[in-house]
Design goal:
27% strand; Elongation Factor Tu (Ef-tu), domain 3; 2 domains; alpha+beta; 9 helices; Aminopeptidase
Amino acid sequence: MHQDQRDFLRKLLNAPGPSGFESIPAAIWREEAAKYADTVEHDVIGNSYALLNATESKVSVAIVGHIDEIGLLITRIDDNGFLWFEKVGGWDDQVVVGSRVRIVSQNGHVQGVIGKKAAHLLKPSDREKITTTDQLWIDIGAKDRAAAQERVEIGDPVVLDTTTLELPDDLWSSRSLDNRTGAFVALETVRLLANDRPKVNVIAGAVTQEEITFAGAIGLSNQKRPDVGIAVDVTHATDYPGADKISDREIALGGGPTIARGASANEVVFRGLQAAAKRLNMNAPVEALPRNSGTDADALRSAGMNIAPGVVSIPCRYMHSPSEMVSLADVENAAKLIAEFIRSLPRDANFRP
C-alpha cells in the first residue's frame, strides 16, 4: 500500500464517529474521494458517495462500507460533574473499564476517563462479578454540574481515546477498523478503477449507522438503486489462542479477504468474485453464511430494491474492542478483488441466478 493510502487510512481510523455522529470521518472520506471520483455527494442520513460513470451502461455496482464505529452517548450529568452514559452499538462492557475517552462536543473535543470503584474498596463477592456500564461513569475533572455543562452536553457522542498502532508485518490495530476499513476499501476500489474504467457505473458508499439500525445501507438502496451491492466489512479471525476453528471457521490475518456464500450473497456475484480471485491468483477463502451476514448486505437484500448482494470481508482480531487488528495486505487485496470483479462485468450484466 502506497504511503498516501496509508496516511489517508490512518487519518480515517483516528477520526471520532460513532453511529449517528459520523460527520468527521465522512468529511475526511469525501475530501479523499474528490481526487478520484467523477462526482462526490452526501445525504441527510450522513451517507457519502463517490461515483464513476460509465457511458453506455445502465448497470451500477455499489461498494458499501459503513463508516460508523461503536461508541458511547452521554445521558446524564450529575451534581458532582460526573457524566453517565449508554452504549452505542455492541460493547463488551469489560473493555471500557479504566479507558480514556474523547467526547465530541460543540466546544471542541473534551478528554476524560472512565471511572469505577477501586478493587480495594469492593466486597470480596463483588470482585467476582462482571462490571456493567451502568456501574461506570466518565470523569472530565469538573468540580460540579455547572462546570461540566460548560464543556459538554447531554447527547454528546464519546469514543475511546486511542490512536492507530502500527505493528510489524503491516498489522494495524485501532478502535475503528470495524468498519472504516470497509469505507476505505470502497473508495480504494474507485481509485483503482478511475484510470482503467469498467463498462458499468460504480458507486462507492461510506454509509452510516450500521452498528445500530442499517439506516445508511437502506438509504443507499432507496436513493441509488444499484443492481449489485457489495458490502465490505470485517469478519472474525480465528488465528489466536482459544479460538474455535470448528464453529467459527478457519480465518487468519494475512490469509486474504473472505467471500461470503449463502443467503446474504447472490450466487452470480459470489461466483464472479471467486473467479476474480482466481484470475488474480489471490487467496480468498469462502465464508459460509447460511442466514444473515451481520453486514450491510442484509439491509441491501431486504430493502425491496431488487439488489444482488455480495459480501467481501477482512479478517479481524478482537472485534468491538479498542484494539481491533487487521492485516493491510488483506485490506489492499479486498479492493483489488472487487475492482477485478467490476472490470469483468459487461455493460448488460445480469445477476439473476
